[in-house]
Amino acid sequence: MRALRILLIIAVVLGGLFVIADRVAVNFAEDQAAQKVRTTEGLSTDPDVSIKGFPFLTQVASGELDDVQVGIKDYEAATGTGTAKIRISDLKADMRGVVFAADYGSATARSATGTATIPYDELLRAAKSEPTDVSPGVSGQVVGLSSGGDGKIKVEVEATVLGNKLPRPVSVLSTVSVKGDTVEVRADSIPDLGIDLAENTLRSVTDFQQKIDDLPGGIKLDKVEGGNDGVEITVKGSDVKLAG
Predict the structure, then answer these.
(1) Which parts of the chain register pLDDT below 50?
(2) Pfam families annotated for this entry (predicted)?
(3) Same domain for 133 and 51?
(4) Do 2 and 81 have their domain in common?
(5) pTM of the model
(6) pLDDT tens digits, one per residue of 87-114
């Protein structure tokens, strides 16, 4: 009985040491991965990297990690217009089946899903933020974006009709959608400015789009909807480069 007790104690101690070693190794790997992603994506700060699953060391031995979660506070995405960028906030990506290169210099996820937010002040820059003439004596400009509830957004249009600025902006409930790599905003109905204007004329102000390109690892836009702080997006991808 004493020998068995000693063996059990040794097993518990060794198991505890393995857990400690495993956690030390995963923390080191997370730090190294964060630095690698920062360099690869040109970030100003290290992202949050969390390697899920236990034990970590056996996953490394197999050459594949089950689940790696990456969080980037602010990411500058390309807009397809010269060097112009648009800030994407709180990007969280869940990478599944992360496979290492033979030299551990790069890693690729078989699949990835994630969420992020395009702040309304960032998206506003894509709208007609300067006064636009829509007909003789009538001009309009988008001066604000906010949540419209139920996944829609509210577009605030300031208008001048026959030299008189309307006393307050006109609110236009709009639907936001994805078409390829572009976020599109389209008014559910055109605003009433107190003057008869063609629908396509007013839509030249109320409707707009914003291309979102060059997201981390090659992930792509999937769905969008209006949220409290901005347009909430979901992303997905396959064979996504985590680093390298």
Answers:
(1) 3-18
(2) LmeA
(3) no
(4) yes
(5) 0.84
(6) 999 999 999 998 877 666 778 899 999 9
**pLDDT at position 88, please?**
93
Range of the domain at 200: 115-243
Indicate whether 16 and 89 sit together in one domain: yes
pLDDT for position 81: 79
Task: Among 114, 138, 169, identify where a domain stops.
Answer: 114
DSSP line for the chain? -HHHHHHHHHHHHHHHHHHHHHHHHHHHHHHHHHHHHHHHHT-SSPPEEEEESS-HHHHHHHTEEEEEEEEEEEEEEE-SSTT-EEEEEEEEEEEEEEEE-TTSS-EEEEEEEEEEEEEHHHHHTTS--S-EEEETTEEEEEEEEEEEETTEEEEEEEEEETTEE-SSPEEEEEEEEEETTEEEEEESS----SS---HHHHHHHH-EEEE-B--GGG-EEEEEEE-SSEEEEEEEEEEEEEE-
**Per-residue pLDDT at 135:** 74
In a shared domain, residues 120 and 230 = yes
Boundary of a domain, candidates 114, 141, 168: 114
pLDDT of residue 1: 57
Across 218-230, b (16+ Cβ under 10 Å) vs e yields: ebbbeebbbbeeb
Half-sphere exposure of 208 (CA within 13 A, CB side): 17
Number of domains in the chain: 2
Q: What residue type is 51 in one-letter code?
A: I
Do 119 and 238 have their domain in common?
yes
